[in-house]
Amino acid sequence: MTQTRATAPVVIIGAGCIGAAIAYHLGRRGVRDVVVLEREPVSGAGSTGKCAGGIRQQFSTELNVRISELSVRHYERFEAEMGSGPVFFPVGYLFLLSDEARWAAFQAQAAMQRGLGLPVQTLTPEGAGALVPQLDLDGVLGATFCSTDGLGNPHEITQAFEAQARALGARFRFGVEATGLLRDGRRVTGVQTSEGDIVTPLVVNAAGAWAAAVAEWAGVDLPVLPYRRHCFVTKPMAWIDERLPMVVDMKSGVYMHRESGGLLLGLADRDESPGFDTSTNWDFLERVVEPAMERIPALAEAEVAHGWAGLYETTPDHNAVLGPAEGVPGLMLANGFSGHGFMQAPGVGQLMAEWIVDGRPSLDLTPLRLERFRDARTVVESNVI
Ligand SMILES: Cc1cc2nc3c(=O)[nH]c(=O)nc-3n(C[C@H](O)[C@H](O)[C@H](O)COP(=O)(O)OP(=O)(O)OC[C@H]3O[C@@H](n4cnc5c(N)ncnc54)[C@H](O)[C@@H]3O)c2cc1C
Q1: Is the predicted pLDDT of residue 2 greater than 70, yes or no?
Q2: CA of 139 to the centre of ligand 1 (A)
Q3: N or C: where does the chain have the smaller number of CB atoms within 10 Å of the terminal CB?
Q4: Ligand 1 atom with the shortest distance to the CA of 341
């Protein structure tokens, strides 16, 4: 007796915010029976579940601004469209600048961002202090603030994408690992999994920090490296207001926002080597608290309640890699978000679904194709936290 192999019109590897958003948008565009493979028991168990929840549109490249604007439009109507609770809180992002060159660059970017429709203000230190009176603004030259940036809940958002994708016919297979790709020459024709093969004309790589391994099965060199990143959260403090914006001090790179009545503190350890270790390095806490306290002296009273680490999936130019893998029919990439995958997930979901169904996305994503690395045509995204 011959065993028939499972088939699907599209197989997505990875049920993080990106894979779940793509599955949802494919469902909205009428693609039924999309299979999403996730080796963990639930969606969002990778980097998505470790994310700080920041959602911003203040980027240095026009394309990142546009993708984030598109995503924020989705987040603004998320509750109504997805039948979820409130998941998006537009408290704004406040960037503090302390050196001349960066301040000049942020002012030029703010003009570009305003040209694209964002309500970005450039502020004096006094203006920044009016927004967050607890700040010590010593050495700060100026600030930028965008009131439509904010915070979101990564778990609820990813699970809402999953629930709505399921309602539109997608099948999420948890505890199933993709172990290889079926190929006919260069063409990808399916996925080998821990529970058998699935034949499909299209595989979407949404494997987050593990995406390079998936691409390698198809002979594709994808420059996405995993970097450990930490967050720490203090116990609740009375002065923390619900309207407190996300504060990013570009001098140290420390970022802070309200979390469960306390303050979430995050900072990238630039000395960290790539790797898949996600254990929490408590020795790093001091290096985060020090610059945070310099900006918000009230933190001297704070007690840290918990902390965790997850992985940034980082590319050399800190931009995502989106689109078909050149010379490898049957493989699409949605990888390398370099610390901004959650905020861009709804837009990326829409654009990838357009690419798959219509043959091209409604925004020109050519600058984000993998081939940019071969041609040395990369434009670096400099607003990376
Ligand atoms: C500490 C920290 C703070 C962050 N803060 C922010 C922030 O404020 N705002 C923001 O926008 N972004 C932030 N990020 C980045 C953001 O979390 C990521 O960019 C985003 O979650 C990427 O989503 P993803 O779906 O591509 O990856 P993931 O969520 O990692 O999903 C990939 C999934 O693929 C699965 N997978 C991998 N290989 C296989 C396989 N072979 N078979 C089956 N399944 C597989 C994994 O288990 C995983 O669940 C932060 C990240 C960290 C670590």
Answers
A1: no
A2: 35
A3: N
A4: 19
